[in-house]
Design a protein that fits this description.
Layout lengths: L7 E3 L17 E2 L5 E3 L20 E5 L2 E4 L7 E4 L2 E4 L5 H9 L33 H7 L26 H10 L7 H8 L56 E7 L7 E2 L11 E4 L17 E2 L8 E2 L5
Parallel strand pairs: 6-9, 8-12
Antiparallel strand pairs: 1-11, 2-3, 3-4, 4-7, 5-6, 8-10, 10-11
Protein name: SUMF1/EgtB/PvdO family nonheme iron enzyme
Organism: Nannocystis punicea
Keywords: Signal
Amino acid sequence: MDLDRRSPVRPLRALLAGVALAGTAACFPDVAPNVQSLPHCEGVEPGCGIAAADDCCAVGQVAGGGFDRVNDPALPATVVDFQLDRYEVTVGRFRQFVADYPRNRPAPDAGTHPQIDGSGWNPEWDALLPADAEALRVSLQCDPNFRTWTDEPGDNEAAPINCVSWYLAFAFCAWDEGRLPTETEWNYAAAGGNEQRAFPWGSAPADDSRANFGCDTAVSACLLPVVGSTPGGDGKWGHSDLAGNVAEWVLDFHGTMAPECRDCAILEDETFGREARGGDFSHTDVELATTFRIGFLPESGQTFLGFRCAR
């Protein structure tokens, strides 16, 4: 049972990263401090976290500031306050999007970062989305062994959705009144801001209590567990699975970072694909580091790729 794995466009490791994010959204307060529940979650049952009882739609506030992208002092950046999903988008949460598809395709400029011109939905991308709901469901079945989507609700509702292209991830976040995080925003949250953490939890080596990683797909089923099931790996602001489980699409192209930036992203295609951060369930702790960068073709829907949204 071997995973048809890694068609990265270009795997750069200790290179560089993108930038900031801003803004708040019209959301509904949750019971936890600095946590909000999202607008399209009426049909999503609580089931995330170590006790499988947390709100899968929870959002955590990230206090902005300055830090060094990929822990490199030559790449300083500033990030303003932003919100980031506490959990990777789940199957149950994505199911609400599928039910409303294709009426919920993004309008032009939807999902725009308020500080970054040209970061919203380009109507030319419409042709890269599935034609209808049936085509969407088919696209979510990219691998018979490791896909998480089921056409009917089942045991995977709190697992991270995978087999999702960059375009679908963008469309979902725009529909959910958010956007994909920039690479720098993602990096800032994972590194604990100016704490410059080697991993989201700190400097301690990765293990099974901190991340879902290192599964041998040739001999194991490697089922993706409930998001948030390794709380020992939570980041500074309470975000789960920033390392392992599924790698996460971000807004940026995989490319060369500016030496210094504020509220920026890499929006020029250097033919290396779109960035995906955080490593995944089938690879080693090297990919879990907050410095690790890798690009994939944006139309690629893979079992090791998922996402979370910012706002």
